[in-house]
Amino acid sequence: MPSAYVLVVHHGQNPLWGDDWPEVRAHWPLDWAVAHLNHGSYGATPSAVSKARRALLHESDVNPVRWFRRVLPGAVREAREVIRQFLGAPPGTLALVTNASAGVSAVLAATELGVGEEVLVSDHAYGAVRFAVERAAERAGASVRVARLALGATDDEVVAAFAGGLRDCTRLVVVDAVTSPTAMRLPVEGVAAEAHRGGVPVLVDAAHGPGMLPVDLATTAADFWVGNLHKWACAPAGTAALFVARPAAHPVATPIVSWGEHDVPVHLGRDRDGRRPRPDRRRHRRVTAAPEHPDRPDRPSLPDPETPEERFRHA
Known about the structure:
Layout: H1 21-25, H2 47-62, H3 64-87, E1 94-97, H4 100-110, E2 118-122, H5 127-140, E3 143-147, H6 155-165, E4 170-176, H7 188-197, E5 202-205, E6 224-228, E7 240-244, H8 278-286, H9 308-314
Parallel strand pairs: 2-3, 2-4, 4-5, 5-6
Antiparallel strand pairs: 1-7, 6-7
């Protein structure tokens, strides 16, 4: 048996994308000499989004004081509102974070763990998330319980595995929408239903959700949900969202205390966490240049970004 398989498809015969593959491929500045098969790890930014990013970079560089004081706060609110509607989240439940791992860490920091208590994860959890859970548990004198899932397990088997891992001392369940190492789509609603029977909140790691799966956070059973927008939603790297279903019951605060402490949703100050390097700050604005969800026509289209000159006229 050969160690690798090569599929040769001539123009006009592409079974995946159709006859317009060259036109579709041209929207990304990726190296044509490389077959990019791993979009999930880091994503790839379309050329139009990169162009919008460069325009915002220039705008902030030519007048940093104006950018940070007059432009950025409103731009972040605008981006957050577009993302909120895109994901179907109720008002006041969504905040911007740098990636899903950052959102997970914020939720873990807000989770009160005690000696002898537990966090339940699966053995298909993303490595960085597993590390964050282990660190939080170690600091509190708690422990991590692992639900074992067979590769290709049915939805009922997955739910049963999580249900079997719940204990009276379980304080949080972390479940993946799509597992990173094994590409399994897990029944998060069923897992959440079992956890909620015992009053245990659920964090859904949907790093691969936005742009790949239908997302409607208004109807999700998750108490917390994190998703990346730099993967299948085609935003620049460093763009992600944290959803908290009931901010009053589960307040989440960023570990970085700064000027945004009291003026963003779900008490998450990461939208404005001090003067971080400007490229990191601008990506939250740049997400508005990403394409609309291909499978959710009810979601609003993401507006084309204004040029710096247009932004100056509107300010």
